[in-house]
């Protein structure tokens, strides 16, 4: 079994007027490059699954990530504890998370 050094590619969000300009993929690839520089050879990326059209799921799949796990109501506790308002649900948030993985090239 190969040993993995795992790096997490955290979520980012763009304002609506900046979406669909390639910013998300560029930031993701840059994060992966920095993680490679720290000897990471497996990337994990959590993706907010709101069901809205600008979800990062499609971007991760285009970048070669594989969907490995979905957790329902993932953001519920955080939304209550931190008081944030989900663009889809409001507060509390009932959206899911999808975890994606990809091995380094």
Brief sketch in words of this structure:
With 105 residues, the chain is an alpha+beta fold. The chain has three helices and four strands.
Q: What structural keywords apply?
A:
single chain, 105 residues, alpha+beta, 3 helices, 27% helix, globular
Structure overview:
The structure is a single chain. With about 100 residues, the protein is an alpha+beta fold. The chain contains 3 helices and 4 strands; from the N terminus they run βαβαβαβ. It has helices at about 25-35, 55-60, 75-80, and strands spanning about 5-10, 40-50, 65-70, 95-105. Helix 1 links the parallel strand 1 and strand 2 (about 40-50). The two termini are about 20 Å apart. The model has no long low-confidence stretch (mean pLDDT about 90).
List the helices and strands and how they pair.
Elements: E1 6-8, H1 23-37, E2 42-49, H2 57-62, E3 66-71, H3 76-82, E4 96-103
Specify the biggest β-sheet: 4 strands, mixed
In angstroms, what separates the terminal alpha carbons? 18 Å
Helix content: 25-40%
Our estimate of the beta-strand percent is 15-25%
Poorly predicted spans = none
Please count the beta strands (DSSP E, at least 2 residues each).
4
Mean pLDDT: 89
Q: What spatial form do the alpha-carbon principal axes imply? A: globular
Write the element-wise H/E pattern from the N-terminal end onward: EHEHEHE
Our Rg estimate from Cα atoms comes to 15 Å
Number of helices: 3
Widest beta sheet: strand line-up = 1-2-4-3
Structural class: alpha+beta
């Amino acid at each position: 079994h190969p040993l993995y050094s795992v790096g997490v590619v955290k979520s980012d969000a763009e304002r609506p007027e900046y979406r669909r300009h390639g910013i998300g993929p560029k930031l993701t690839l840059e994060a992966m490059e920095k993680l490679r520089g720290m000897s990471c050879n497996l990337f994990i990326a959590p993706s907010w699954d709101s069901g809205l059209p600008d979800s990062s799921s499609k971007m991760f799949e285009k970048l070669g990530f594989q969907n490995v796990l979905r957790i329902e109501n993932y953001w519920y506790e955080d939304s209550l504890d931190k008081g944030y308002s989900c663009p889809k649900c409001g507060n509390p948030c009932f959206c899911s998370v999808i975890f994606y993985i990809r091995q380094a090239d």
